[in-house]
Amino acid sequence: MILDNSTWSVKDKYVLITGATSGIGLAAVKELASRGANIGIIARNQGKANKVANELKQSLGHKKNIDVFLADMASQQSIRKAAAEILTKCPKIDILINNAGALFEKRQLTEDGIEMTWAVNYLAPFLLTSLLIERMKENEHARIITTASHGHKMAKTGINFDDLSAEKLYKSPKKFFGGPTLRYAETKLANILFTLELAKKLKGTNVSSYCFDPGLVATNFNQNNGWLARSTMAVMKIFSRTPEKGAETLVWLADSDEVTDHSGLYYADMEVATPSVQAQNIDSAKKLWKISEDQVQHSLKLIS
């Protein structure tokens, strides 16, 4: 990758982000906007997204563009519609941050027939990236950053490709470390494998791919899954870091010149980290990519 002599920074760059109305996503957009970035928020809830956008505009004195695009990350049709709107409105996309995530206690299927946690946490980033990548390749340099998790290590046997719909997994007898939690772990493992394979497919282009572990963060995550989930998260918050601390590595990956020539790596606390053995499996990454293309019926044919 060859750049000019200028140093990379997020100033005046256009940053698209999902999951920015709360938690580390919200902390990240506030910091990135304060550093001079133009922001595009992709959100399901228009009211929450507009509130964030208005607050950012007021704090910045309306000096930067703050756009809102509506998309339900569980719906491929909704993601495609938002991507089309983004491509029409945004002549330049410098950074794409795939940050939205969820965990569902009860197994649910999306309108596309995909298990919900898999659809939101993994397949949505895959599809959104696929739809926007050509625009990003037009830049001198661009970055794709995906929020992973240390929790991927709970998927000790890797992704069960024979149970992608998670029918068997959700029947796991253990409540907390059973179906829902292990499914979440699988999706975070998939995020890392996606980053690895994407970097290989983008080799020789001007686009880099990164993922990171935000650590255990005190957010509103997992609050829609009943009293047990809420109680567990309340206890975990005692040992959690703030959203601002959790967003540090995300902001650093977006803004730092140190990672310009790197791609395909997994980071934690602003350093390269070592994911699980399963997250380094090249064959699994290739297999996952092909299956993902089938699930979204979209192939990145123009990537070498």
TrEMBL record:
GO molecular function, a single term: oxidoreductase activity
CDD domains in alphabetical order: retinol-DH_like_SDR_c_like
Gene3D superfamilies: NAD(P)-binding Rossmann-like Domain (3.40.50.720)
Pfam families referenced in this protein's UniProt entry, alphabetically: adh_short
Keywords, sorted A to Z: Oxidoreductase
Domain of life according to the entry: Bacteria
Record keyword Ribonucleoprotein present: no
Protein name: SDR family oxidoreductase
Organism: Heyndrickxia sporothermodurans
